[in-house]
Amino acid sequence: MKKIICECGHENPEGTTLCEKCGSPLTEEEKSKKLADMRYEGTAIRSKTYNKTIIDKIWNFFSSVKVGVAIIIITLVAAGIGTFLPQVIYVSLTEYQDAAAAYKAAYGTFGSIYYKLGLADIYSSWWFQTLIGMLGISIIVASLDRGIPLYKSLKNQRVKRHENFLKRQRIFASGEMSAEEADKAFDLTEAKMKEMKYNVRREEGALLAEKGRFARWGPYINHVGLIIFLFGVMLRLMPGFYIDKTLWIREGETMAIPGMEGFYLESKKFTFETYSKDEQKEEFNESKKAVNAVAKNYQTDVKLFKAPDDAVPGDTSNLTLVKEMPIIVNKPLKYDGYALYQMDFRLNELKTMHFDLIDKKSEKSLGSVAIDLTNPEKEYKVGKDSKVVLKKYFPDFAGFEDGEPQTASPLPNNPAFIFVMYTPETPKGETSFVAIKQTLEPLGTTKYKMKFSAVDTRNVSGLTVRKDKTLMILMLGGIVFMLGVTIGSYWSHRRLWLLKTKDGRLLMASHTNKNWFSMKKDLDAVTEYAHLPVYVDQHDEDQKAEDAEKKSKDKEKEGDNI
Amino acid sequence: MSLIDLSGNLLFVAFVAYLIATLLFGGAVKGGSKGESADAGKKWGSLAIIITLVGFIANLGYFITRWVYAGHAPVSNMFEFTTAFGMFVVGAFILIYFIYKVPALGLFALPIAIIIIAYASMFPREVNPLIPALKSYWLYIHVITAAIGESILAISAVAGLIYLLKNIDLTKRSKESFWIEVVMYALILVLGFVAVTTTFNVTGYEAEFSYIDKDGNTKEITYNTPALFGMHQSELLTADKMEPIANVPAIVNAKKLTTVVWSILIGTVLYGIIRLIIRKPIAVIMQPFAKRANSQLMDEIGYRSVLIGFPVFTLGALIFAMIWAQEAWSRFWGWDPKEVWALITWLFYAAFLHLRLSKGWQGKKSAWLAVIGFVIIMFNLVAVNLIIAGLHSYAG
Fold first, then answer.
1. How many domains does chain B have?
2. Measured CA distances, A479 to A483, B320, B351 (Å)
3. Where would you tag: which of A44, A224, B111, B239 has the fewest CB atoms within 10 A of its CB?
4. Are B144 and B67 contacting, i.e. CB atoms less than 8 angstroms apart?
5. DSSP code string of B222-273
6. What is the pLDDT of chain A when averaged over all its residues?
7. pTM beyond cutoff 0.90
8. Chain A contact for B104, CB < 8 A?
């Protein structure tokens, strides 16, 4: 490895731009700048030093801030495009044969192209995930690339710096001073800076006052937080860390909870409430919005049961009650790392249908039958001598196909039945097809019929079962990020250097990584107290412009005088 | 006087106070420049900030009384949120003013707050009952923190605007001088929206239409402005009202489109009239007010407000948002448009900070980025709520 030897004799590793010891510029590029580049204290940065092997090239690619920002911009543009149309997960597909058809129907050609380009599911596309992955790598590499050298350099920094370092700082002052005056200024500076909570170190003829160095670690800490967060997100892909199931449960049912082995849930009641007029404000009631009722509450009252550890799955005989509570939007049931959320509902699902078996002529009833629509029986006794056999059941009757009745789904949305009615008068049985508002007699006219009398309904709750073991990791990532970003944003690293030169001058220079306004307040205070030379901000464009203007005006005046 | 009336009156007081304070800040910026002593400028300045504080207290009074009246924090619909945002912009300005004492900041920040509040007042003002998804204390924590973060970030755009007005050479035709005028034009367009909405509100314009939505259902809609565009297969139901010039496909909300087009039309006319009167770009008129600001300081204020605002925004718009989403929707992140745009805003300011720190993007570049950042925030507030449908669009 090549070493760079500074005028002061110190050996610096290759790639250093400001001497580690005295701060003098080492490279031609650095020397040509008016102000020192203080971003990483001029230390050797791997990505700026080596560019030979393929590893160097990869490292340099990911450590480049330009590349990092490019990835950020591409990600944000892609994310924005993904909001043009609803993503596939938010689109109801029930009416269409597939998603492509749904997009075409709803959004025309644009929707069709949008879907075909994969933009309708952009966030789970391989390339979007790759972008996020690259962002993660970039964060790690760039942080290591800059953070480690910066840490070393600040830890080992010297009190005494070369004049070339001081005068190339943004804030610089220089004044002639006797040795005694200078010593006094040093003492006063030390006192004042300590009063302002700076750490002060002194060496022969030099002073360094420093405050808030930890602020420099803020960005690195918040990057660690981001990495923890992204790591947590990736962990979700591992089996067992993340469960996302849906449970549709009817009032009165007890069901095994999917994804939550050994646990059962009983739904006692689902409640949907809207606001009554007197709960709403007067002026709201007068507005047009009040035409529609506003939803007030979705709630499922449940009991959570646990089966004994040695129970066979599905055996609900020895359940113990664990929890009894309502599940409300914003108030999920939480147990053992699992959470059950109120997400959806269906009101008034048909539960039981009641029929009377009647003589068509006399309308005399032989008795009634109650059919549980989710769990119908094969045969129903009616009175003493009659029975009705349920030959076929179509929970969601959708019309005939080739003369055969069809069902669209197993949900009892539109039940239809084929009954065979046996009575003392008709011992061979009569067949009747019964659907809502429809009775057919496919095998000839019947004497008896099943007359619909009543229906019982119940509500169905749509619950989401969720377990996310990564939440704690994500939370930790968030906290670390906030800690880092707070440190990095609300504190600044401030330094002040004093140097007594051999030819009888006192030099002062100062640097802060941000918030120069407050730094200058500190400087004004110490300058006044310790009688330091007046400093200039070598970066202030306006000041320069004003100075230049003044000079030209002065010249004009001089011209007038002559 | 009932609490809700009191609340409305306090908001009006705040609005007027901000208007007066803007003029006073104008005096503070101009004062001391010609002939008058610097003290005169200072007097204007301290009077201006006192009036601003009075306005802000009245504004807080509006917020608190409405909170008490409604029983929930007034951040649950478009009117409430936008008003709160305007109020926080003033709050953020006051914070920054007490750090840096730059009157020019007030001269530009207050009008922006005024425009935001005026925009807010165009939305229905009724106190809505809360839907189940919003019934959580996270509503207050998440929305208020996010809005405060956004308002502090907005101040950076104000500083950026002043920096640009001062440093762009408006005597020459250039990309910069063109775009800064576009920014002025955009601000006038918002006034156009306010003018259109107010005019038709006052005249009580109402036209009923029936139309067929994208699922094939027949629905009705009431326009409050003369219809330029009709909904999909719309039919006018009210007699003697303007027929739309054209009907649009079902996926476009023609009512909103009509309002937008009206605003642009009227805003453009307004802009044209201003240009005719002053006979030069608006930026040129505004420039003298920015001339006395220190560029270095404006650059720093712009940067500092991003530094102050960014952590607050992260906390409110991302972290609190995720915690609440986990409670309410069972997942902390679902790529809902509003979530995505909060992420975009966050990524944008992250890029801003990286470009500034590592690429040395200071001065004009940094100022332009700050202005663009504000555009993204406003897009998130306006377009994402009103145009892009999603879980957050209970607001419209």
1. 2
2. 6, 11, 21
3. B239
4. no
5. EESS--SEEPTT-EE-STT-PPPSEE--TTS-HHHHHHHHHHHHHHHHHHHH
6. 87
7. no
8. no
Is residue A233 one of the residues assigned to a domain?
Answer: no
Q: Compare CB distances from B330 to A343, A474, A516 and report the shortest one's residue.
A: A343
Spatial separation of the C-alpha atoms in residues A392 and A405, rounded to whole Å: 10
Tell me how many domains chain A contains.
Answer: 5
- Do B274 and B363 reside in the same domain of the chain? no
Interface test with A, best of B97, B305, B330 (most A CBs within 10 A): B330
- The pLDDT score that the predictor gives to residue B396 is 38
Residue B394 inside a domain? The answer is no
Q: Cα distance from A439 to chain B (closest Cα, Å)?
A: 31
* Structural domain boundaries enclosing B251: 173-280
Tell me if B206 is assigned to some domain: yes
Q: Test B330 with A332 for CB contact under 8 angstroms.
A: yes
Chain A contact for B273, CB < 8 A? no
Query: Please, where are the H alpha helices in B121-237?
Result: 137-167, 175-203
The shortest CB-CB distance from B348 to any of A76, A82, A86 is to A76
Q: Does residue A171 surpass a pLDDT of 90?
A: yes
Residues B165 and B293 in one domain: yes
Instruction: Please check whether residues A134 and A86 belong to one and the same domain.
Output: yes
Question: Does some domain include residue B53?
Answer: no
Do the domain assignments include residue A469? Answer: yes
- Cβ distance A66 to B4 less than 8 Å, yes or no, reads no
Q: Name the residue among B129, B295, B357 with its Cβ closest to that of A542.
A: B295
Tens digits of residue pLDDT in B16-58? 999 999 999 988 887 655 555 567 778 888 999 999 999 999 9
CA–CA distance, A376 with A372 (Å, rounded to integer): 5
Q: Which residues of B touch A72 (CB under 8 A)?
A: 347, 350-351, 354
CATH number at residue A544: 3.30.310.50
Beta strand A242-250 with A448-468 is: antiparallel
Residue A503 Cα, gap to closest chain B Cα (Å): 34
CB of A489 within 8 Å of a chain B CB? The answer is yes
Tell me which residues of chain B, numbers 9 to 38, contact chain A at a CB-CB cutoff of 8 Å.
none
Within this chain, do residues A66 and A114 fall inside the same structural domain, yes or no?
yes
Q: What is the DSSP letter of A5?
A: E
